[in-house]
Each structure stands twice: as structure tokens, then as C-alpha cells.
Amino acid sequence: MSYTIGPFAFATVHLIFFAALLVIFGLAWILGRIKAIRVTDAVFNVVAAGLLIARASFVIRYFEMYAAAPWQILNVRDGGFDLWAGVIAGALVAGYEIFKNRPLAKPLLISCVVGAITWGSLNGLYQHKYGQKLFIPEVRVTTLDDHPVFLHRAYRGQPVVMNLWATWCPPCVREMPLLEDAQTRYPGVAIVIVNQGESATLVREFMEEQGLEIDQNLLDRNNDLGNTIGSFALPTTLFFDKHGMLIDTHVGEFSAARLHQAIQAITRE
């Protein structure tokens, strides 16, 4: 689900996207050399337009949530993109580039199509690899009072937002108020925070210092949950529907808009 490279953490889906970009631009460069035309410039315009419009569409849909913290609009790491808006924008720009320079048609289309196939294939392999982990894991954690909780038993039957975090993780700390607020905003959803590898005393002190009250506050002293789902970066947030099926994941800090989008997905009938 995620990988760490030195001090940096990457979601697997982001690495897949970067791999697809590498294929697109690498192929565009090769075809451009063969055809003696600047294919990479056209590909850049297509990709840039797609990403910008995908982001703009998402921000417009959830503008009220960004209004309270407008700087979050620039934080594209929150994953807020509308796929089909970006695809349509990219296709329109590709058509314009071809209209301006007809010889671009074949190499531009080949680069974009092969890149899209690469993204789809790698994403499909990733989903297949982790297909057996699409439900709430059979992991034993504890409450702050050291009572055992079996996640797959305790949280089936209701939508669940499950956040893996630690007190030493700055992005985890920043998103805690959003999770606290979500308890009130989404009363039918279980908001569960699962601390990774720290003691009950440390977690209690942290919550008191931050003035936070999150009801479902659990401890995973041996990092069993992170190891089971294959995520080695914090924070990681898992979104399960009422059947216990994993619908969405987010590695890294999320915005209020991204959290709302994911909760909409798990509460949809």
C-alpha cells in the first residue's frame, strides 16, 4: 500500500502514476527523435491540462470545505482529483495539439494510450495482489485500558474510517482535529484511530495536550495492522463500508474535502 524511500513515503498508487508518466514521456522522446518533431512538448501540455482541470474540478465541487483553509487547494498530496474531468481536458488538448501540427497525431496518441495502458495494468496488478485484504483485517488491538479489540469483529456492520497514526508524526497531528470533527459531522460512521507502536500513557498525554477527544482510540503496539495491510508510512487512512469492504485508502495527510469524498463513498447505498 505504501513504500518509504529514505525520509520520503509514497503510496503505491502514486508510484504507479509516476511509472506511467515515465512511460509516456520516455516513449514520446523516442518517437520524437524518430519523427524529428517535439512530441514531449505536446505530451506535457496534455498531462498538465489534465491534472490542472482534474484538480480544479475537485476543488470547485468541495469549495466550501477549502474556503476555511484555502492554502489546502495547493496541497495536491491530499489526492483530490476528478479523473474524468482530467481525461476530457487532456483529450481536448491532445486534439488541439494535433490540429496545430498533424504529424503529431500518431506519436502523441501512441504515447498517451501506452501510458494509460501502463497505468491501468499496474493498477490492476496491484489490486489483484492485495485482493485478499479488501476487508477489515483480522487484527487484535487494545483499548487504552488494555481491553482486547478484534477489528474485523468490532467494526463490521457500519461504515468505518480507520486512521493509523503516531504522536511523533506531524501530518498525523495536523489531521487529528478533522477526525475529531468527523465524529459529530458523520454520526453513522465509526471514526477509529489506531496508534502504531506507542504506549497508552503517551497517547493519553498527547490527547490531553492537544485537547482532543476521539472515542474510538486504540493501540497497536506491534504495528500488526500496518504490516497486515502493507503500509509502512504514517498517516494511513482506510475507508470501509458497512460490509467491512475496503473502498478507499489514503496515505499521507488528507484535507477536509478529501475526507468528505471518501466518507461519501463508504456511506453510499
What does this protein structure show overall?
- The chain is an alpha+beta fold.
- The chain folds into two domains: 128 residues, no CATH class; 135 residues, Glutaredoxin (3-Layer(aba) Sandwich).
- It has a seven-stranded mixed β-sheet with strand order 4-3-7-6-5-8-9. A two-stranded antiparallel sheet has the order 1-2.
- The two termini are 26 Å apart.
List keywords for this structure.
elongated; alpha+beta; 269 residues; 7-stranded mixed beta sheet; Glutaredoxin; single chain
Give a topology summary.
Elements: E1 2-5, E2 8-11, H1 12-35, H2 39-61, H3 63-67, H4 83-100, H5 105-129, E3 140-143, E4 148-150, H6 151-154, E5 160-165, H7 170-185, E6 190-196, H8 200-210, E7 216-220, H9 224-229, E8 236-240, E9 246-251, H10 256-267
Parallel strand pairs: 5-6, 6-7
Antiparallel strand pairs: 1-2, 3-4, 3-7, 5-8, 8-9
GO cellular component, one term: cell envelope
Keywords: Cytochrome c-type biogenesis, Membrane, Redox-active center, Transmembrane, Transmembrane helix
Domain Thioredoxin: 130-268
Question: At CATH's second level, what is the architecture of the largest domain?
Answer: 3-Layer(aba) Sandwich
Can you tell me the overall shape? elongated
Strand order of the largest sheet: 4-3-7-6-5-8-9
What is the CATH C level class of the largest domain, in words?
A: Alpha Beta
Q: What is the number of helical segments per DSSP (H or I, 4+ residues)?
A: 10
Helical content (DSSP H or I, runs of 4+): 40-55%
Topology, number of strands: 9
Low-pLDDT segments: none
What is the domain total for the residues? 2
Strand content: 15-25%
Terminal-residue CA separation: 26 Å
Average pLDDT reading: 91
Q: Structural class per helix/strand content?
A: alpha+beta
> Order of helices and strands, N to C?
EEHHHHHEEHEHEHEHEEH
Under CATH, the topology of the largest domain can be stated as Glutaredoxin
Major sheet size, sense and barrel closure: 7 strands, mixed
CATH superfamily of the largest domain: Glutaredoxin
Radius of gyration: 21 Å
Protein name: Peroxiredoxin
Keywords: Cytochrome c-type biogenesis, Membrane, Redox-active center, Transmembrane, Transmembrane helix
GO cellular component, one term: cell envelope
Domain Thioredoxin: 130-268
